[in-house]
From TrEMBL:
<feature type="region of interest" description="Disordered">
    <location>
        <begin position="379"/>
        <end position="416"/>
    </location>
</feature>
<dbReference type="Pfam" id="PF04860">
    <property type="entry name" value="Phage_portal"/>
</dbReference>
<feature type="compositionally biased region" description="Low complexity">
    <location>
        <begin position="383"/>
        <end position="393"/>
    </location>
</feature>
<protein>
    <recommendedName>
        <fullName>Phage portal protein, HK97 family</fullName>
    </recommendedName>
</protein>
<feature type="compositionally biased region" description="Basic and acidic residues">
    <location>
        <begin position="406"/>
        <end position="416"/>
    </location>
</feature>
<dbReference type="InterPro" id="IPR006944">
    <property type="entry name" value="Phage/GTA_portal"/>
</dbReference>
């Protein structure tokens, strides 16, 4: 199966020419940051960490219009990717280029059957016969095109352009600092490892003689053949000193400055990047970074997948996450018990909190009765039993019969 045929099913692609000019005169073509924002270790880690956490989002389809595609979206949105790869690739594109496209995949009958992400760097918005198209360059040099109104657009850092996000030029100084510091570390390590002795020549020697003496001294004393542990030199050298090799450590303040710049740009912190976060750190990261991406992805895929009438009838696509995944066991236990017996969580919901497999009949809800399935509550609505308190009666006087059928207590004699 050809990749182009898979996406467009052999549909005739029109010859598309002129660029579509935005109102501000900007031509919407994209390039990645020169020097590669994805090529530095720290920035790549920040991008990949964000994309990895986003890939754990769970897609759900609400409504009946595309309910048959819910399992497709949850497992394999297209022929080449499962759901985690689909979401992770989208998140990576948005973090690196601040723009990503999603195109619908249709079967031979024109019905929606999947979704595919496109990288913005290889895309351009063009016009043909009054119709806007998104034209995409494939790795083999072929072009594909699709009507622009059917495309989903994920963006970040929106400002100058009317439709798309900005580039990573603001990160250029930090990237240069990272590059310069890496080079400094490499050169410092090389220099400290190479120079081990300083020798002062006693007599005047020609440059070529100095080179010969350096080579001879190294071979005689510093090679593996010298197993005695002793260095001997003649009167050609008046002084010989050993250079202490000290390990080079980068400037801590510079490293912290670089890390803070990268973390600020990508909305993260070192605890998240090094997987040392607690539930409070995770909740803050989710609120500030993961949730906005999930909301935008939900809206983009809802708008591109449903008609206006279908959206008005309540059809939508949602991406959600288990926010309690990184909570402490005490928090998980408290939430599980408090919400389960109030019928706000079912048993499978509790299993999700604890990262356990679902159980049979786990979709039923229970409420304290103690405990009764919600659908069974009406069966226990018999008339309540009213318990009346029997008034306390005094002991009968001597010679009197007990009243109201009260019997004399066993072993108690009448008063004389």
């Amino acid at each position: 199966m050809k990749f182009l045929d898979y996406l467009f099913h052999g549909k005739e692609l029109k010859a598309i020419g002129n660029y579509f000019k935005m109102l501000n005169g900007y031509s919407p073509t994209f390039t990645s940051f020169s020097g590669g924002v994805y090529e530095m270790d720290l920035t790549r880690t920040a991008i990949n960490n964000f994309a990895t956490h986003c890939s754990k989002l769970k897609p759900e389809i609400e409504g009946s219009a595309l309910k048959s595609l819910e399992k497709t979206l949850q497992h394999k949105p297209n022929y080449f990717m499962d759901t985690t790869k689909f979401i992770k690739r989208l998140a990576t594109y948005v973090a690196v280029e601040h723009t990503a496209f999603i195109i619908p995949i249709e079967d031979e009958y024109g019905r929606l059957c999947g979704w595919y992400p496109l990288r913005a760097e290889r895309c351009e918005v063009v016009e043909s016969e009054g119709q806007l198209y998104l034209r995409y360059l494939f790795a083999n040099g072929s072009y594909g095109a699709i009507e622009f109104e059917r495309v989903g657009i994920m963006t970040d850092f929106e400002y100058k352009d009317d439709l798309f996000g900005e580039d990573n030029s603001t990160l250029a100084p930090t990237m240069q600092l990272i590059h310069t510091q890496n080079e400094g570390i490499i050169n410092a390590v090389k220099n400290s490892a190479n120079i081990r002795f300083l020798a002062k020549v006693a007599n005047m020697l020609k440059p070529e003689d100095i080179k010969k003496e350096r080579k001879r001294f190294t071979e005689d004393n510093l090679s593996a053949d010298n197993d005695s542990g002793m260095i001997i030199y003649d009167n050609k050298f008046s002084e010989l000193k050993q250079v202490e090799s000290k390990p080079y450590t980068p400037n801590a303040l510079q490293m912290q400055h670089i890390q803070e710049n990268v973390c600020t740009h990508f909305g993260t912190n070192m605890d998240i990047l090094q997987n040392k976060f607690d539930e409070n750190t995770w909740n803050a990261y989710y609120e500030g970074k993961i949730e906005p991406f999930a909301i935008q992805l939900s809206l983009v895929m809802t708008n591109m997948s449903f008609t206006e009438r279908e959206r008005a009838c309540g059809n939508a696509i949602f991406f959600s996450a288990n926010r309690l995944q990184y909570a402490s066991n005490a928090t998980k236990l408290s939430v599980s018990t408090q919400l389960f017996d109030r019928a706000l969580l079912n048993r499978n919901g509790v299993m999700d909190i604890w990262n356990m497999a679902h159980v049979e009949d786990g979709e039923k809800y229970y409420i304290r009765k103690e405990y009764t399935e919600v659908s069974e509550l009406h069966k226990g609505s018999e008339q309540p039993v009213i318990i009346q308190q029997v008034p306390q009666q005094t002991e009968p006087a001597a010679g009197e019969e007990p009243q109201n059928g009260q019997e004399e207590k066993e072993g108690v004699n009448n008063a004389s």
